[in-house]
Amino acid sequence: MMRKDQLCIEQFEGEYWWGGDIDEGVCMPFGETKHQRDLIINGSGNQAVPFLVSNKGRYIWSDEPIRFEFTNNSLMVGCERGSIQLHEGYGNLRGAFRAAAQTYFQSSGTIPDPNFFRVPQYNLWIELQYEPTQAKTLLYAEQVLANGMPPGIIMIDDNWMEDYGVWKFRSDRFPTPKAMVDTLHEMGFQVMLWTCPFVSPDNAANFRYLERQGYLLKDERGETAIRRWWNGYSAVLDCTNEAAVAWYEGELHQLMKDYGIDGFKFDAGDPQFYRESDQSAVPLHPNAHCEAWTRIGLRYALNEYRACWKSAGLPLVQRLGDKNHSWDAAGLASLIPNSLAQGLAGYAFTCPDMIGGGQIGDVENNPSFRLDQELFVRYAQCSALLPMMQFSTAPWRVLDSDHLSYCVEAAKLHESFGEEILKLAFHAAQTGEPIIRHMSYVFPEGNYEQIKTQFMLGDHILVAPVLEKGARSREITFPVGTWQGDDGRTIMGPCVQEVDAPLSRLPWYRWISTL
Predict the structure, then answer these.
(1) For the CA atoms of 387, 314, 157, 269, what is the dihedral angle to 10 degrees?
(2) Which residues form the Glycosyl hydrolase family 31 C-terminal domain (predicted)?
(3) Helical residues (DSSP H) of 432-469, grouped into ranges
(4) What is the reported pLDDT for 81?
(5) Pure H helices in 276-334
(6) Are 433 and 419 spatial neighbours (Cβ–Cβ below 8 Å)?
(7) Where does residue 401 rank: exposed (0-12), middle (13-18), buried (19+ CB within 10 A)?
(8) What is the 3-state secondary structure of 389-429?
């Protein structure tokens, strides 16, 4: 019989919590208002963990999916298998987080490829959508350099391949892929390809082979499971089957060997595409199937994931879910709180969504769509001092020269901080600590728990992007100490000050001393 466990705790005065579903970072910290989330029956489309951590030095962990509810100054946590553990006495948010990381998601000691932190990424998804070609890919890379942006990691997204599960270049779109990759390497780019665990049943020969080998997930009737996802109906690779994973890795290895591909964007794998009744080599909860898909990426230094379960502490790039081209909590306003939530869930190697927004519904079949140049610039600035930044929509195509210059400056700022961010990445690999940190993580006595429009890069860089349309100044909370600004000004904290922030400026400050 399935064992159920439940925990009810009374909240301390002034207690706040983070954790669970990263997509709910915009709602964090929890604890002041009623909130509930069920990770047992409603898996996340972004990163998630069975973990909650408090600014009062407490944390909750379960090895299995949980549901939780904050109400009437109480926290209720339940699970349907395994147990729930409450750990107390760690003083503050940082103390509780580090204790949890050491006990339950100890870091591997390694990081993804260092260039993720040193240079921008260029994902071709929004720019080329479902029609990437060799010629368009090379043109995009050429224009990156022609517009003064640093070469980085270029990602060729969906539909470069013959079919889902047939991981071979489409010859009509990529006639000489080896020559293309060689040229991109000569230009200074590393090259990644999009991939997913889906297999098209319409590709008869490939589908028959994988089905015959037993490499595909089966439904409760023992039939090959066919699942609806955003690109139609497909079978699903059984990532609990070692032989199926070996086949898939063989396909990826061949791409690296034949064409010089450097790594892969591992998309999909969301818990919603699995059922608890599915038949697989190792029976798992849908969240754990997502985790099995995630583990494949550990074999590649150049990797990217969006949907992950209980994969904290691992050397995996974790991108935020697709964001809208908007100023609100579905777009730009979500980047900082959701990125902070990633770090406080143990996902240190974070990447915001594509600059300007990565939600294809904004531009596809939407005749009323109008690009906001100011928003695009503020997206770029907000991303510049996060651990990674990722362009997609070509800024040189959609922006005038002034707005373009501000995006180029943001890319160069990220590049100039590359070695500093890389050191923080290595620190995260040893300790699990986030690269970007909540104000209350670094300054636990400051009562900064509700601040989610600014962040710390490590312990000494305060970053305060502008997140409101039309704003040319913003209010910044400065903790105790002396802060040297990018504008040359020195500010003595603690204080709250309104600072100038024209469209050309991303306000950031370096801590110099406590007095």
Answers:
(1) -130
(2) 432-508
(3) 439-442
(4) 86
(5) 286-296
(6) no
(7) exposed
(8) CEECCCHHHHCCHHHHHHHHHHHHHHHHCHHHHHHHHHHHH
- Inter-CA distances, 179 with 115, 159, 160, 182, Å: 23, 19, 15, 5
Residue 92, helix vs strand vs coil: coil
Contacts of 324 (CB under 8 A, 6+ apart): 330, 331, 357, 359, 362
Distance, CA of 181 to chain centre: 26
Rounded to whole angstroms, the Cα distance separating 490 from 473 reads 17
Count of CB atoms situated within 10 Å of the CB of 470: 8
Four-CA torsion 25, 28, 33, 36, nearest 10 degrees: 50
What residue type is 100 in one-letter code?
A: A
Residue-level pLDDT at 359: 87
Please name the residue ranges forming H helices in 177-220: 177-187, 204-213
- Residue 88 CA to residue 203 CA, distance in Å, equals 54
At 90, list the tokens: 């760690």
Instruction: Report how far residue 509's alpha carbon sits from residue 495's, in angstroms, rounded to the nearest whole number.
Output: 14
Residues in the chain: 515
CB atoms inside a 10 Å sphere around CB 487: 12
Ranges of the chain with pLDDT below 50: 1-2
CATH topology of domain 118-196+246-270+283-425: TIM Barrel (3.20.20)
In CATH, what number does 5-104 get?
A: 2.60.40.1760
380-424 confidence digits (pLDDT tens): 999 999 999 999 999 999 999 999 999 999 999 999 999 999 999
Side by side, the strands of the sheet bearing 226-229 are 198-199, 232-236, 226-229
- Are 413 and 506 in contact, with CB atoms under 8 Å apart? yes
Which conformational region is residue 356 in: left (phi greater than 0), alpha (psi within -120 to 50 degrees), or beta? left
- Classify domain 434-513 at the CATH topology level: Immunoglobulin-like (2.60.40)
Distance in angstroms (rounded) separating the CA atoms of residues 338 and 301: 24
Helix or strand run (H / E) with residue 486: none
Residue 131 tokens, joined? 């029609």
Give the end-to-end CA distance of the chain in Å, rounded to a whole number.
61
So where are the chain's domains? 5-104, 118-196+246-270+283-425, 434-513
Q: Are 439 and 479 in contact (CB under 8 A)?
A: yes
What is the distance of C-alpha 167 from the center of its chain?
24
Please tell me if the domain spanning 118-196+246-270+283-425 has the same topology as the one spanning 434-513.
no
Q: Residue 29, preceding bond cis, omega within 30 degrees?
A: yes
Instruction: Give the pTM.
Output: 0.96
